[in-house]
What does this fold into?
Amino acid sequence: MGGSPRRDAYELGKLPTKPSAVLREITTDPYFGTPLRAGDGPSEQFMRIPNVFAKCKAMPPRAAAALYRATTSFWRRKRTRTSDGSRVTPRS
It folds into this structure.
């Protein structure tokens, strides 16, 4: 990641569009960094997304949209409601 813009565009172009599949792909594919271990939590998965944005030299629009959707779906999953109906984001 971050080497050849053509290779970055190719690898990012192969990403799926479903948010959970994007997270799984960027955390298990060695191209996007060291694959995460089974014990690594959601925080480690989430931190991979900004790394992809920062290091890739060529970002196809479809891949950028898929990564953005993965980010927003991650935070939607993390939110819960309290008994009074207010939203709380639990710590990992």
Residues 32 and 52 are 7 Å apart (CA to CA). The first helix runs from residue 5 to 13. The chain is about 55% helix and 5% strand.
